[in-house]
Amino acid sequence: MASYSPLLLLVLCTLTVAEAQLKVFNMRASKLDSSFLGTPDAYVKVFCGSATLGETSVRHNTENPWWDEDFTYINARENDVMRLEVHDHDFGFDDLLGVCQRKIKRGTHEHECFLEEGGSLHYTYTLS
Question: Which residues form the C2 domain (predicted)?
């Protein structure tokens, strides 16, 4: 009689490292710090673990930008680190205004983080 133990073990191992879908959306910033060159031209770069999910469009000349882009990553795992970098687009070199990062959890979550150079970023993510 054949043993099903190896097959059962394989199925259980697969369940413990199951991948999920991450969706990052509803990003908006407020009170971004103006440099001596004027009002920021802000955009956000989105990462999950070592994967780059993309970046938003640049919102020109506003301290309170919002972005309607959604970012999806199908290989996300619970406790992966999601990182959002807020940049000010300039000619030659873009300034980093701040970084938001956290370990992701299942469900839908809204967060606001305070940026190193002033202002805050609000965003929502879902891990399903």
Answer: 1-123
Supply the Cα-derived Rg of the chain in whole angstroms.
19
Do residues 33 and 120 lie in contact, with contact meaning Cβ atoms separated by under 8 Å? no
CA diameter of the chain = 78
| Residues 47-59: tens digit of each pLDDT | 999 999 999 999 9
- The number of residues in the chain equals 128
Measured CA to CA, the distance from residue 88 to residue 65 in angstroms comes to 11
Here the tokens at position 76 are 């996300």
Cα–Cα distance measured from residue 43 to residue 97, given in angstroms and rounded to the nearest whole number: 10
SS3 labels along 92-109: CCCEEEEEEEEECCCEEE
Question: What contacts 44, CB < 8 A, 6 or more positions away?
Answer: 27, 29, 55, 56, 67, 84, 85, 86, 87, 121
Q: What are the tens digits of pLDDT across the range 69-124?
A: 999 999 999 999 999 999 999 888 899 999 999 999 999 999 999 999 999 999 99
Q: pTM for the whole thing?
A: 0.84
100: nearest Cα among 44, 62, 31: 44
